[in-house]
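Data availability (excerpt). The following record was deposited with the supplementary files.
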Amino acid sequence: MDSELRSELVAAVSRNDLLQSSFDNIHELLDASNNPVYKNAVSELANDGQWRELNNRFFKKLAFGTGGLRGRSIGEIITTAEQGSALPSERPEHPCVGTATLNFYNITKATLGLVKQLKKSYIGEGKPSIALARDTRYFGKAFAERAAKVANENGVDIFLFPQPRSTPQLSFAVRHLDASAGIVLTASHNPPHDNGFKAYGKDGAQLVDPDASEVITEVNMIKGENYEPLPANQQGATTELGPEMDETYMERLKSLLLSPNLVKSQNGLKIVFTNIHGTGGTIAPQMLRRLGFQCETVLEQDSEDGAFPTVKSPNPENAEALQMGIDQAEANNADVVIGTDPDSDRMGVVVRNGAGKMTLLTGNQIGSLMAYYRLKMFTSQGILNEGNRNNATLVKTFVTTELQQAIADSFGVSVVNTLTGFKYIGSKLKKYESQIPAKIRAEYRHLSDETTRSLRLEHSKFFVFGGEESYGYLGADFLRDKDGNGAVVMFAEVAAYANSLGITVVELLDELYAKHGVYIEGQHAETLTGADGAEQIQRLAQSYIDHPPTEIDGASVKRVRDFANQDHVDEEGDPVPKEKMVYVDLADGRAFAVRPSGTEPKIKYYIYFRPKSAPATVLSKDQLATAKISAEASFGSLKEAIVTDMRSRLG
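Predicted structure:
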């Protein structure tokens, strides 16, 4: 850092315009790199007095959260240096400069950290290898090329998807290719200005401790993005993956279909699919058609475009993102609209209700329907029976609906709860695989699903279904992350099943409510951006630990679970890792949980209405309607009380 810029930044710190952490991180970045874009961008923002922007870019170093690294690749303020030769209407030539942003500096450090950890832990012949994919986001291709270059020059082979591919396909490729690790460059359903880096272990699941901490330790030891490449004869090589990997993946997805004859008999069911400009269009519509479903796509959204030009947000849990599909379904009298997010790990759906109105389902409702159907089919087919159902399980997150517990109980199957983040569900699958006899385990990932299911039912736990309320689902263990492509297959079969009964999907959900009671779940997410927002989020989250509520919305607090400081074990006796989350159970059966998001500048509130006990008998149509009205009112009242309490805590 030159003396003139340093003096200007020191003065800003003394005026409290610039955080000390921002100054330190700017200093580290500029001293460790000779890239002129970095210095010019920082100088321009400092000269213009854009201290808030500098703080937002440099107040921290990116760290692994529930979804790896994630941050802005385009700043709120785009400097002249970053815009470069690009026109004002185009994506900037260079990504956002900062230690808290996603750019070549952080891609290089993250890849180097992963490579160093791999080389220390690698046992085997030849070189370690990494499978590498990206979605359709800005800078994805350039980031992938940088990550591949860094890995190769440091002695690691790369299996590269040259075109955008989904996160679940990356997870599958790690396992299928017996790679040592995986990287996918994505920010999931975040806004267009974001991108991210997710790291995977050799089991195909996102890294968890101790591996994640080891990578972070390696990353923190790296000063800057410069390194000395190995001699040419010690470097790794890049192998590009072609259409054969798509075919192999789709062959495994076919095994998710539990009743092919049922699907063929319901060929009048019409589905509209949209990839919302992401990666889902490569696999999902092809799969649906191969399996016998009628599927049309939303032409205007078929393009793979990181600007996501037809939506405000590429998030399929929002009706707005699916509106073009809904309009097309109305025009063409389709029954179901399905959408996946940019990296196709999440899936949202809209279905017709009994009155013919298009109805958006929540992630909890979608997951409950798929869990129910899969349990029902495995039971009716005799795959699950009295002799083995104790060795079958659903895996869900603590903040996912308890309706799934009630459904599992009715089939005599266990449920295991994990923290938020599919990596924890992946860890459970790794545990179940590890319990298979070693002589078989060596070939486990290359065995058929029928064979591995039999092995798990005999030796460990058969994973029937897993999911989280945030629209992530998994129905098999041949990959280890939420799979939007697989979810499309599973939900389409649920729709076909409902159609075979002469009812809608909404009416099938009502049957579950009539039997188990009405469950209503929802969220409130408070967005607090930048350095100030990050501090507010942590302060607010801590307030529930230091001063948990004793009463809310007229109900006394029955139990408070502090996952940050208390020790917890799951249903299998395994320790639950520490996380800043508080879960509050009320005496009247309602509940809520609070946690900072690991991927977005938000604090999230998960709010639940649930019956204190199941109905004594199946509710009639009128009884169910009355129960729904009462539940909605109680849920709404609790949500209002929680938000009011949050505002007072924020001050």
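Summary of structural features: The domain at 517-650 is CATH 3.30.310.50 (TATA-Binding Protein).
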